[in-house]
Amino acid sequence: MAAGQSRGTATSPNMMGVGIITTAAVVLILAGVMHAMQGVVGLATNEFFVVTRQWLFQFDVTTWGWVHVLVGLIGAGTGVAILAGASWARILGVIIAAVSVIANFLWLPYYPLWAVIIIAFDVFVIWALIVSWQDFKNV
């Protein structure tokens, strides 16, 4: 045993991992708020989002407004729970980020740049929650 270590103590957390998971939680909160705002705009006015080309998939904007509001609220709440250290929030965070990727992929015809940005945020969140969770639990 090395000097300064005692038997039965947990290893010290990797602070880089803690920073990554905290950033992922904040990004999940921000992405959730952006989802909710996007959904409210879709609910308030159907004419704001206009399809520029014919895509294979097209959906009613009002329906997608409700989907975005729901995903956004769950995502923001999950991000807050991750910051609080809830273990269940990690799994829900990965699931909600994956659902968000799918929803934004299907949202591409309506607002392509925004959808791609949110997809990039979600991919980061999924990566961070899977790779760095053990470091965050040890704090």
Series of H and E elements: HHHHH
The structural class is: mainly alpha
Strand content of the residues, in percent?
A: under 5%
Number of alpha- plus pi-helical segments = 5
Distance between the termini: 22 Å
Largest sheet: none
Low-confidence stretches: none
Based on CA inertia axes, which overall geometry fits? elongated
Number of strands: 0
Number of structurally distinct domains: 1
Residue share in helices? over 70%
Q: What order do the helices and strands come in, and which of them pair?
A:
Elements: H1 15-44, H2 61-84, H3 87-107, H4 112-131, H5 133-137
Helix pairs in contact: 1-2, 1-4, 2-3, 3-4
Keywords:
139 residues, mainly alpha, 5 helices, 72% helix
Folded structure, characterized:
With 139 residues, the protein is mainly alpha-helical. The chain has one domain (24-49, 58-137). It has helices spanning 15-44, 61-84, 87-107, 112-131, 133-137. It is elongated, with a radius of gyration of 18 Å. The model has no long low-confidence stretch (mean pLDDT 79).
